[in-house]
């Protein structure tokens, strides 16, 4: 019988106890090998490039760079990496963004280690996996039971991206540089965004972003 190679995993989460606990629980399972741990999005991108994991377990809310942006960066550098987003019920409104960023799977953070390992194995086999709770949220939105407008009031994906960056403290010029677009284009998006949200300044937009879970104060 030929032994199968363990799946190389990088754990990215800003809670050190959660990372360490998950790594310890994985240590006794021959199906996975924890290659490293990252405490923020920037470190996740850096370690993914260095360690070349098969799968990254990615928290959504992290300092310096959130999990959605880190997912984009990692997949731009290496599309073969599988990203499993670790989510909680208070961040499920970011599931669509994570899907758009290229995530292959979603697991609830308080799932059992075996459930998370099964998700890791499934994405490695080419499947896209969602915890049933997450799938139900997405289904509600796609079927119209809960419209995305309830969450984002008609904002486009680009407008949401700009709102997140603005709410994190970036000026229009910085946003333009980061996204590779002109400052005028950013201003146009901001104007459209404010009109849709019925707000008049950045402070009101930031409060909206926080309320929707796009950023944290």
Could you explain how this protein is built, in words?
With 217 residues, this protein is α/β, with parallel strands linked by helices. It has 2 domains: 7-143, Response regulator (Rossmann fold), CATH 3.40.50; 149-211, Arc Repressor Mutant, subunit A (Orthogonal Bundle). It is built from 11 helices and 6 strands. A 6-stranded parallel β-sheet has the order 2-1-3-4-5-6, with helices on both faces. α2 (41-51) runs parallel beside α3, α8 crosses α11 (202-211) and α9 (172-179) crosses α10. It is elongated. The model has no long low-confidence stretch (mean pLDDT 82).
What order do the SSEs take from the amino end to the carboxyl end, as H and E?
A: EHEHEHEHEHEHHHHHH
Gyration radius (Cα, Å) is 18 Å
Strand percentage:
5-15%
User: What does the overall shape look like?
Assistant: elongated
CATH superfamily of the largest domain: Response regulator
Number of helices: 11
Helix content: 40-55%
* Mean of all residue-level pLDDT scores: 82
Low-pLDDT segments: none
Examine the secondary-structure arrangement and name the CATH architecture of the largest domain. 3-Layer(aba) Sandwich
Total individual domains: 2
Q: How is the main sheet built?
A: 6 strands, parallel
Name the quaternary structure.
Answer: single chain
Quantity of strands, as a count: 6
Structural class: alpha/beta
């Amino acid at each position: 019988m030929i032994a199968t190679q363990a799946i190389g995993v990088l754990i990215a989460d800003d809670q050190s106890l959660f990372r360490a606990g998950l790594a310890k629980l994985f240590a006794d399972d021959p199906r996975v090998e924890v290659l490293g741990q990252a405490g923020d999005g920037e470190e996740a991108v850096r370690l993914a490039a260095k360690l070349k994991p098969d799968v990254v377990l990615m928290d959504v809310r992290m300092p310096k760079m959130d999990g959605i942006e880190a997912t984009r960066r990692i997949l731009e550098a290496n599309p073969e990496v599988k990203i499993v987003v670790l989510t909680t019920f208070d961040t499920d409104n970011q599931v669509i963004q994570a899907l758009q960023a290229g995530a292959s799977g979603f697991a609830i953070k308080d799932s059992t280690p075996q459930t998370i390992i099964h998700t890791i194995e499934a994405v490695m086999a080419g499947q896209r996996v969602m915890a049933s709770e997450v799938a139900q949220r997405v289904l509600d939105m796609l079927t119209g039971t809960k419209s995305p407008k309830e969450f984002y009031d008609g904002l486009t994906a680009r407008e949401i991206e700009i709102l997140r960056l603005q709410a994190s403290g970036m000026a229009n010029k910085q946003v333009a540089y980061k996204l590779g677009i002109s400052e005028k284009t950013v201003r146009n998006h901001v104007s459209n965004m404010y009109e849709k949200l019925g707000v008049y300044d950045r402070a009101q937009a930031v409060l909206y972003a926080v309320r929707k879970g796009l950023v944290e104060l």
